[in-house]
Fold this sequence. Notes:
The chain has one helix at 198-204; strands at 2-7, 10-15, 21-25, 47-48, 59-62, 65-68, 81-85, 89-94, 108-117, 120-129, 135-137, 139-141, 144-146, 158-166, 169-171, 182-184, 191-195, 207-209, 216-221, 227-231, 237-241, 250-257, 276-278, 283-292. By secondary structure, it is mainly beta.
Amino acid sequence: xxxxxxxxxxxxxxxxxGAQMTSFKGNDNREVIxxxxxxxxxxxxxxxxxxxxxxxxxxxxxxxxxxxxxKHGFSRNPEFTVEKIxxxxxxxxxxxxxxxxxxxxxxxxxxxxxxxxxxxxxxQFIVENKSDKxxxxxxxxxxxxxxPMEAGASYTDYELVxxxxxxxxNSLCPGGYLIDGSEYLPCFHNSRVLPLSHDxxxxxxxxxxxxxKSRSVDLVNRSSGKGLRFSYPKMEVLAVWxxxxxxxxxxxxxxxxxxxxxxTESGRFEDKPFVTLLxxxxxxxxxxxVQLI
Length: 293
């Protein structure tokens, strides 16, 4: 089932399956969210739990036991339960299912809250540990944004502009799987600006930044300055991605509290970079914010 949210002339649609936002339109009625072309990338804005990216050998080790787990976890496909809903917000929650238990032996509640405002929205993640033991997890967002956003513009007219100068160190993830080293991205080294181009992703797949000083970025047309501001104050990692070798007219801005597996890692969940070790009965919050500019 899909639900429509309103705030003045700003609208959004949210689907129960995977708790994905499938549409967001500002006051100008222009679609901002990628419309899931199955020939390119058949998603809109997945939410990621309890891992981000691919686990080493597609398994995680918890208390000495190896558990199989899919890329980005298991939150992309199940039906979430609607916990609360109003004209301009919706809160959905995922709890353990027969499909999740073989991958993740914990009692949890994973909440996704969308709140609409004029020309913008927030996405809040809330993770509750309902187990009687420490629960390791990672969490993130994967929203895709249409590029170009303006008629007559091209993909290469757009750039990511950060508020602070960044060194551009990118974790290398060949084929989108395991982290294997890093590089200083030549087009983003000691700069505030990362120009978009399709071959940026053809050569590297996802760009994964773990050392950014900035906690927001503007996705804008360099000529008009129009686009959106993407903020992720509580998330440690920002990935930037578009499907390689498809010349696809979108870019994903992915705020993560976690990382894909690394070639050299132990495989133990608690050893993953940026993992959260949540105490029994405790909760964690994170998320991201989008504002049209």
